[in-house]
Amino acid sequence: MTTDTGVNSLADDRPLLGRTSTAERVADVLRTRIAEGYFPPGERLSEDSIGKALGVSRNTLREAFRLLTHERLLVHELNRGVFVRVLAVQDVEDIYRTRRLVECAVVRGLGEPPYTTDALDAAVTEGERAAAIGDWKRVSTANIHFHRELVALAGSPRTDELMRSVLAELRLAFHVVSDPHGLHQPYLVRNRMIVGALDLGDSARAEELLARYLDDSRANLVKVYARRIESGDWGV
Questions:
Q1: Using one digit for the tens of pLDDT, what is the confidence trace for 27-79?
Q2: Helix, strand or coil for residue 22?
Q3: CB under 8 Å, gap of 24 or more: what pairs does 149-156 form?
Q4: Global confidence as pTM
Q5: What three-state secondary structure class fits 74?
């Protein structure tokens, strides 16, 4: 069953749907909630509970589920329902390949400084404050926000849309890791260093830092993720 916290929080998102609710808007709300960690991998999504929370019809919700299944965030199991997808190790590796291609290209293509880093700085500060009180789920969310804002520097709606889906998939991997402190803590400082390089107008240095960051993060996460998946003790 879907967790009460995840479903109840969806009611707060109802105004985002507007009067002309569509499957695309519902999918966007659910994608964001998955990216923020409300629905962990392997969890069954209840049509009745979610439809009631968002105030949408069963048909609209099913279409939203179909869209998110196409994005590899959900999976439909015959006679069982719709579940948040559990990634394979190869999926995690492919996510990082995509991130490196896109994120590094964004930084490389920034053009002449100065660069607008207010949103990046806010995301890093959000992560630092969460770390200070030991809220590592919030640190994870802040990290997702940081990379989303980094890609937004390109000013490309298509790139933003691509990365929303990729980063939501990434959060599915984060969910499986048993030590979020060890996973996220080393990268808070590195996020701050990337912002610092951009503030100095040094996009080449920022790209170098980002590439190393992504390579290290991929190696660390793949190692930990593979071990957890093999053990099978991460279930919801």
A1: 999 998 888 778 889 999 999 999 999 999 999 999 999 999 999 999 999 88
A2: coil
A3: 149/119, 149/120, 149/122, 149/123, 150/103, 150/106, 150/107, 150/120, 150/194, 150/210, 151/102, 151/103, 151/106, 152/119, 153/106, 153/107, 153/110, 153/115, 153/116, 153/120, 154/106, 154/109
A4: 0.81
A5: strand
